[in-house]
Amino acid sequence: MVRNAESRSTAFDEQEPILEVDKTQQDAAATGHKDNSRKAYYREFRKVLENADVVLEILDARDPIGTRTLQVERMIMDSGVSKRVILVLNKIDLVPKENVDKWLKYLRNEYPTIAFKASTQNQRRNLGHSSVATDAATEDLLKSSECLGADMLVSLLKNYCRSVNMKTSITVGIIGYPNVGKSSVINSLKRSKVCGVGSTPGFTKVAQQITLDKNIKLLDCPGIVFAQQGQDGRTDAEIALRNCIKVELLEDPITPVEVIVARCPTEQLMTMYDVPYFESANEFLISLAQKWGKLRKGGIPDTHLVARTVLNDWNGGKIKFWTEPPAADKSHIGASVVTSWGEALDMNFA
């Protein structure tokens, strides 16, 4: 056990440069603090990776690629440590079913991927589960407060335990961007509210261990922003739209709204906010400010205040939006690696 722990630590120490790409400003904004708490967050993050046998990477179904931590996936695969990655496509109730199917087909070329809808119930005990498969769920069931996909995910984890002949429990690390629903997934798997849940980034600040059953222990990791401006095509505005930075701490809330206006059909925003036709984000925000009476001295529309409200609507899922998977893309992991995982993470284990 000591040798295993040492090898794990050494393997991830060698990957340290990958974890240093985040900007201090983004980390401080994401956690809600002005001081640099990046090292503390990385320490908690690395604790999860080092101790996990299986890593669940939680993705937002509306933007799976935008919420993937490819650097961490590469770090796990390149470390030489025997770990497995499972992708969990959360919030499937916010996108059309056919879009979910496309993403599952795309992502399963690289990793086992589970469609998931976390429970939205507020009580601490007996969070509802549905045994209905996600691909067979009705619209009413998707809109309900019950969890979907938990049975499939737990079965996959237990299948891994059996396949590798583990006599003791496995530790499952939960990682992902802020607000992709890591704690909600854990609560749904546990069927009770064991983790705090917040709609703002930085809610989970330390790694939390939860015992799911005698075979499975879960480690919830704080959400960390890994993307630097310009890296993988991700601008500061793109990062803000992933709810990685608290809206109230944004110096410029206008630019992210410009991205929203560019992404969403004009008619959709006109109908949702009951505003007349507009040709730019500035016109859109001016109309909203006038409609809501958000005016500064002299009757000047307070577009910054209105922009923050629009961003909160975006982060809360009120503005409907989803992405399409690329038509073709080369995997960053080899097909031979995927094949070598064998039946341990076979999606057809039933």
Detailed description of the structure:
Residues 42-227 form the CP-type G domain. One of its GO terms (cellular component) is nucleolus. With 350 residues, the protein is α/β, with parallel strands linked by helices. It folds into 2 domains: 2-226 and 323-345, Rossmann fold (3-Layer(aba) Sandwich), CATH 3.40.50; 231-263 and 265-315, Conserved Hypothetical Protein Ylqf, Chain: A, domain 2 (Orthogonal Bundle), CATH 1.10.1580. 39% of the residues lie in helices and 9% in strands. The chain has 14 helices and 6 strands. It has helices spanning 2-13, 24-31, 38-51, 70-78, 97-107, 139-143, 150-163, 182-190, 236-241, 254-263, 266-273, 281-292, 303-315, 335-340, and strands at 54-60, 84-90, 113-115, 170-175, 208-211, 216-220. A 6-stranded mixed β-sheet has the order 3-2-1-4-6-5, with helices on both faces. The longest helix has 14 residues, at 38-51. 36% of the residues are buried. Mean pLDDT is 76; it is low at 17-36, 198-204 and 227-233.
CATH topology of the largest domain: Rossmann fold
Largest sheet: 6 strands, mixed
Number of separate structural domains: 2
- State the distance separating the first and last CA atoms: 32 Å
Strand order of the largest sheet: 3-2-1-4-6-5
CATH class of the largest domain: Alpha Beta
Please compute the radius of gyration using only Cα atoms: 21 Å
Can you name the CATH architecture of the largest domain?
A: 3-Layer(aba) Sandwich
Residue-averaged pLDDT, rounded?
Answer: 76
- Strand tally is 6
CATH superfamily of the largest domain: P-loop containing nucleotide triphosphate hydrolases
